[in-house]
Amino acid sequence: MGKKGHRHKKIQQQQQQQQQQQQQEQHQGQQQGQQQQEQQLQLLADASDAYLARDAAAAAAAAAAAAAAAEAETEKSQQSQTHTSQAGEGEGREQQQQQQQQTAAAATDAAVAAAAAATAAAAAANQFSQQQQQIGGYIEVEGQQDTV
Length: 148
What we know:
Mean pLDDT: 71
Order of helices and strands: HH
Low-confidence stretches: none
Oligomer: single chain
Structural class: mainly alpha
Radius of gyration: 36 Å
Number of helices: 2
Distance between the termini: 48 Å
Region (Disordered): 1-39, 55-127
Shape: rod-shaped
């Protein structure tokens, strides 16, 4: 009976060792999983930054192009006014009024487009800032959970 008791104790020790080893492996696996998750979040944040920066740059370029178009239209309008005022009375005056109306409409359209592009750029920058804060907060929370 002494041999059976000794053998039973040895089996218990082996089982305890196996359980401890499994727990250690699980803990290591969880830590690695968390590190991978944080790395993926960082990659996601970097990719998000790149896309938002690209969108903001495109919006800024569109705003600059619209502003340049508006300026060109205004310059064209001033030149045509000089031309038609030299042309004299009657027909020249009607043409001048039509051109002025068209130019004013084009300049207004360009100004509206520039304002829309500037608004889009500001919105993209704001969204970028908010996402940065959210991602930063998430990583901090993960870090706190890790230390507890």
